[in-house]
Amino acid sequence: MEAKSRRNAVKLAESDAGIVGRGQPRNGQCGHLRIENAGKIYRSRGAAVTAIDGCSLQVPPGGLYVVVGPSGCGKTTLLNAIAGFDTLTAGEIFLDEELIAAPGRALRPGPDRIVVFQQGALFPWKTVLDNVTCGLVAQGRVPRREAEARAVSLMGRVGLQGIERQYPGEISSGMRRRVEIIRALITAPKVLLLDEPFRALDALTKSVMHEYLLELYDMERKTVFFITHDLEEAIFLGDQVVVMSTRPGRVKKVITIDLPRPRNHRMLATERFLALKREAIEAVHEEALKAFEAGERELA
Amino acid sequence: MAELISTSTPDLKVAPGPERVYTRSEIRLLRLRRAVLRPEPWLGFLGLATFFGGWHLAAVLDVPGVNKLESPMFVLREFLLPPRGTFDYNPQLESKFGYGVWGGAWYTDIMVSVWRICRAFLLSLLGIPLGLLMGWRRRVREFVFPTLELLRPVPPVAWVPLAIVMLPWQEAPVIFICSIASFFVVTLNTALGVDSIDPVYFRAARCLGFSEAQILRQVVIPGAMPFIFTGMILGLGVAWFSLVGGEIIAATWGLGYRIWESYTSTSIPPLLIAMFTSGLIGLAMSLMLRGLQRRVLVWKRRAGATL
Amino acid sequence: MSAVGLTVRSLTEFFRSTILTGANLRGLTGVAVLLAVMEVAGPLGIPLLEKVPRFSAVVDRFIEPEGLLWREKYWMSWSVSLMRIGAAFVAGVLVGVPTGLLWGSSRRLKALGFPVFEMFRPISPLAYLPVAIILLPGIEVSIIAIIFLGTFFAVVINAINGVFQVDLSYQRAALSLGASRRDIFFRIILPGTLPSITTGATIGMGISWIELVAAEMIAGRAGLGYLTWESYLVGDIPQVMAGMASMGLGGAVSCAVIWHTGRLLTPWLEDYRGR
Hints:
A: 9 helices, B: 13 helices
């Protein structure tokens, strides 16, 4: 018992570096994501649909990487493959040089790559505090009291104090998103996967949430893999923006965003931002048109 | 800037001090007052009064059929007055059949029926683990569901002869049919409850590193809880209804038994008293379960659902 | 590949994919296990279950020379039961639907009648049997009356719930298009409550069947319930089970008929999750 708790304490000290400290990425802590020639073909009733084909990406450790594209371009498929919810039919995905996805490999979603979901996945039957701490407690890394103390302090630091005893059904949708992001971050994953997390929010809440996410990102540079259909969101948040083509999904264009950090909403009107946006719009709009027409044809 | 904001504003009609905070009893009083002032409760009373008044009138006027059914006043007196012999056999002050608050039989019937339903209901809760398994693991559902669907349509009372043959103990047939009736409802609703859990919660749980046992305890069971309660409330209702039939056919003592026995011995007031008692107790048990539901499903209530 | 070859291949493919699926096979295995246990429990002497008649004995009761399938009495029982249920169920729906819709739409009318309704609802319909026999002429009518009660309660509750669930936006849209109150009732509320009414009718049919059987076992002189009870009294347990199977079949088929009728009446609903 003694040895185990000592071992746990050492593990805690190592893994706990993240949220409590500030600034630079630590090696081995933030994930290097490498996607090689990923492909996914869905078969249903004999028809084969190629969702993604020959996608190759390199996400540097500690980078905020955004994939943007119209609905149906395969970005969710890619995220599901990284997270371990879906298999690939071709290609491989490496996290810190460790193979995490390949055709025929068993699915193994895990806490090293946590997803923040589009429609929100806070457990409605747990209080906010329970939601935030459940990952740490379930993995047995931290005793419950310690986890709760950490959660309370973290929530206090990001402006979520006072709602610990409430249920997700009682708080606003913006708060729910923030709590879900905190829940993901507190377990110190290697990669944070965000599946269009702000899609359901209204535009004003969304812009506040962007600054909130960047504030969290600046506190600790984790690798973030963010997918969205909103171009402005992508350029405002990301270090690199990848435009995906629509069915089959391929990497169409990679744009490096050289806006300085920390970013704020005033940058949305600067020349540089507009220039970047111009660069991206051409690529995205073409794909959006293709997706729209493809959808129309399916219905017709 | 400071001049624009004045601390003393005698012209403004603003109520001084903080907002009024109402205590719980004050709120109850206000609600009661509001309820009494609306027309609905009075219409309700009117409806009830019309019904009982009409019944009483029909009995007094000797309407054929109803005259064999005693008047409500008579039944009430039977229920409340002490048994024969207490007041020197004065029929005005005594209950003719002795079935009511003073007689032991009424209490015994209630206790016997309630004890039977308790045992039957607890037995039927075995459907919860089965339903959880069926909802969670598709293989289990594929094996079990057709068999359940084959047995479910058989009416509970139809199991009585078989139960009498199979289970040689005194109370067993009645308890068996009540638990069977409830079991199917509980199982199916529980399975439906697990089904109703959005798959995204399972994904989130796996991402957070939950083991399978933890998923069962922290996602499956709480997620299915609303449906589990629905199943239990419906199951208890079905079991209570089946109890009447079961007691008529295969039991002694108990409210259902009393109803039939009173009919065959043409003692009408006990019949009616037993009927209404049965309804009342069924209602009380249902309300208790609903109260428990409100306690357990706090999260749903706080999110705005009406329970 | 000849045309015949292609047809054969597609037929076997169809057979394999829809009938011989893993799920269906597993289900059949479950049922087979149940029937196998029934069959061997007697000879093997498994406690409790050994008294259950063998599956083969029950099947025999149906198909043997003097079996149920050939006897007029059996089919007469079916027709009597079905007629009782039919009359009672239809009456229950015809009275219950308007009552429920009315109470759902008008708060005053609901306040008038609902307390009396709720006073009687928790009492099992079967408990009304003696009262019904006293008040009504004849046992037949009494049995139909209590089945009617069961259906009536279920349909009214679901109809009230249905009115409650019709989205207020539809009524407002209709009002803004110039609809009268009568229009709103017949063309918005009524179709909108059809799904709930169907649910209520299906539940009511289920309850009806249960009450019918119980009433027949207790006080009937004909019908499937009476047949089963009679078999018990003479000690013919395999025939009791044959009766149970028949009653189960009747209940399942009648509920399915109601449910599918309801589905036909509401073609705009696309998914039917749960019944």
